[in-house]
């Protein structure tokens, strides 16, 4: 959902190179626990037409979401489709209101059903446009499936008291949690819904959508949180959802300071985003450096934000709820089937796996991959589901591999990888003590094969592999004969060690 203007076409990449000579040895000290993991691998679901009932991929997408069984899944009805995201598209008058959930409810109920029993983060991020002061009224398409990119205009609310804004969100939450609400004209509107909403995230990418100042966002957050808390007292809250955290450190610091909030306003969790963005014309041989170089720069920003959080609001948790890659020309007219090669899904999946490990080391609570469904004209390169057949692609399968094997409570143990006497930047390998035994997570960050010498206890172990050859199929399970394995380009694998 990071709305950069991407103007160029990515060339079709060359085939993977031949393996490079040399082997990497892995040494694990299982007795040396470096830290417990607090991190949940998860994803976001952005509302768009392919997720509507009747779509050819609707059932497959929601079945995959259900089978994943993840916590902290983020649900975002979003601005490009106002009729699928905004429940009151016109301002109320003394004679009538425009409340209408008929196009919003079906996907939302499907999401509730697919994530039942798991914590979720709801973010109806799009404020009704009429609440902002603009030079002229902002129109929106009659067709709910027609995209528009100019709905979120204006920076100043027409009601500076924020009563209009906060009551909109209180009514919206009441629709799903309290069975209905009383509208502006005193009419009760019944939904019959009594769903729990564990977390509510207040707005999305505030540095882009309406370009909020630190003071504006904090005041709006406080007003919305107070109103929602009054109707749904068990709901917790997520703030910020910053698109470009590196350039918004003053905003994040201002928000994290409790002195800038009304008394009693909770700072339960913050969120921000990262997308690797390669240049036009790059192929897999360039992605192998671009993706991970940009990710390393992002990790530097995470450390800075963590320093702020620990200093100002140490009980606040963090979800990085949009992670992925956006390719050039992603919303352009070029055919994504021609410009996005199969190896891309593995490369982007390996990037997510790498960030999952590194963010676990920092102590981030949730790491959300973006997004369940993208498709031509709507960021196809961020999709976790094949928009043609509804099957999970390699990005989703890698997420599921991580979720099925790792999570909060695991213990990260001392793991050393190197080639001769030097650390090997081509690989990310981490040993874990999990509830179901000792495991190694292996990630090849390069578009070349890599030979790895594992510890002696890997002899006879089982390895689950996701690489280019597995495609849209479940992981390949093999038994390791000896201790040497070869990782294909951008492969992600889990080794289940034998306890002897």
Q: Figure out the total of helices.
A: 10
Q: What is the total domain count?
A: 2
CATH superfamily of the largest domain: Glycosidases
Strand content: 15-25%
Architecture (CATH level 2) name of the largest domain? Alpha-Beta Barrel
| Mean pLDDT over the residues | 94
The CATH class of the largest domain, by name, is Alpha Beta
- Say how many strands there are: 20
Identify low-pLDDT runs.
2-21
Shape: globular
- What is the terminal separation in angstroms? 48 Å
How are helices and strands ordered from N to C?
EEHEHHEHEEEHEHEHEHHEHEEEEEEEEE
> Gyration radius, to the nearest Å?
23 Å
Oligomer: single chain
The largest sheet, given as strand count, sense and whether it forms a barrel, is: 10 strands, mixed
CATH-defined fold name of the largest domain: TIM Barrel
Structural class: alpha/beta
Quick recap:
With about 500 residues, this protein is of the alpha/beta class. Helix content is about 25%, strand content about 25%.
Which features does this protein show?
500 residues, TIM Barrel, globular, 2 domains, 23% strand, Immunoglobulin-like, disordered N terminus, 10-stranded mixed β-sheet, 8-stranded parallel beta barrel, alpha/beta
């Amino acid at each position: 959902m990071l709305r950069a203007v991407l103007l160029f076409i990515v060339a079709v990449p060359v085939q993977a190179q031949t393996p490079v000579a040399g082997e990497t040895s892995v040494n694990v000290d299982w007795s040396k626990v470096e830290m417990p993991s607090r991190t949940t691998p998860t994803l976001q679901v952005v509302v768009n037409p392919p997720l509507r009932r009747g779509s050819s991929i609707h059932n497959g997408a929601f079945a995959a979401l259900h089978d994943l069984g993840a916590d902290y899944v983020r649900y975002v009805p979003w601005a490009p489709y106002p009729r699928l995201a905004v429940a009151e598209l016109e301002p109320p008058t003394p004679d009538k209101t425009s409340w209408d959930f008929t196009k919003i409810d079906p996907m939302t109920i499907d999401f509730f059903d697919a994530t039942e029993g798991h914590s979720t983060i709801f973010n109806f991020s799009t404020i009704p446009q009429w609440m902002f002061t603009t030079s002229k009224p902002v129109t929106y398409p009659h067709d709910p499936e027609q995209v528009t990119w100019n709905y979120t205009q204006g920076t100043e609310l027409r009601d500076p008291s924020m009563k209009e804004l906060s009551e909109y969100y209180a009514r919206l939450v009441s629709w799903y949690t309290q069975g209905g609400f009383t509208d502006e004209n005193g009419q009760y509107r019944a939904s019959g819904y009594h769903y729990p909403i564990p977390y509510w995230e207040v707005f999305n990418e505030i540095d882009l959508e309406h370009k909020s100042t630190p003071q504006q966002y904090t005041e709006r957050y406080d007003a919305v949180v107070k109103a929602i808390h009054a109707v749904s007292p068990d709901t917790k809250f997520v703030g910020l959802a910053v698109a470009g955290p590196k350039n918004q450190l003053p905003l994040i610091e201002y928000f994290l300071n409790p002195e800038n909030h009304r008394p009693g306003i909770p700072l339960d969790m913050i969120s921000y985003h990262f997308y690797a963005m390669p240049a036009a014309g790059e192929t897999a041989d360039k992605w192998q450096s671009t993706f991970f170089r940009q990710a390393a720069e992002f990790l530097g920003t995470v450390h800075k934000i963590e320093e702020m959080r620990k200093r100002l609001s140490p009980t606040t948790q963090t979800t990085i709820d949009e992670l992925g890659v956006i390719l050039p020309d992603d919303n352009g007219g070029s055919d994504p089937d021609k410009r996005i090669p199969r190896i891309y899904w593995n490369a982007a999946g390996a990037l997510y796996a790498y960030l999952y490990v590194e963010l676990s080391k920092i102590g981030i609570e949730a790491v959300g991959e973006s997004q369940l469904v993208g498709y031509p004209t709507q960021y196809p390169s961020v999709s976790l589901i094949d928009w043609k057949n509804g099957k999970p692609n390699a990005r989703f399968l890698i997420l599921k591999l991580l979720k099925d094997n790792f999570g909060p409570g695991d213990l990260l143990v001392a793991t050393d990888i190197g080639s001769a006497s030097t650390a090997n930047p081509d690989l990310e390998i981490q040993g874990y003590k999990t509830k179901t035994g000792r495991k190694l997570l292996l990630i090849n960050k390069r578009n070349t094969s890599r030979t790895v010498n594992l510890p002696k206890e890997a002899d006879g172990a089982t390895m689950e592999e996701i690489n280019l050859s597995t495609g849209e199929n479940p992981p390949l399970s093999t038994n390791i004969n000896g201790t040497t394995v070869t990782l294909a380009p951008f492969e992600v694998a889990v080794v289940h060690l034998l306890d002897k």
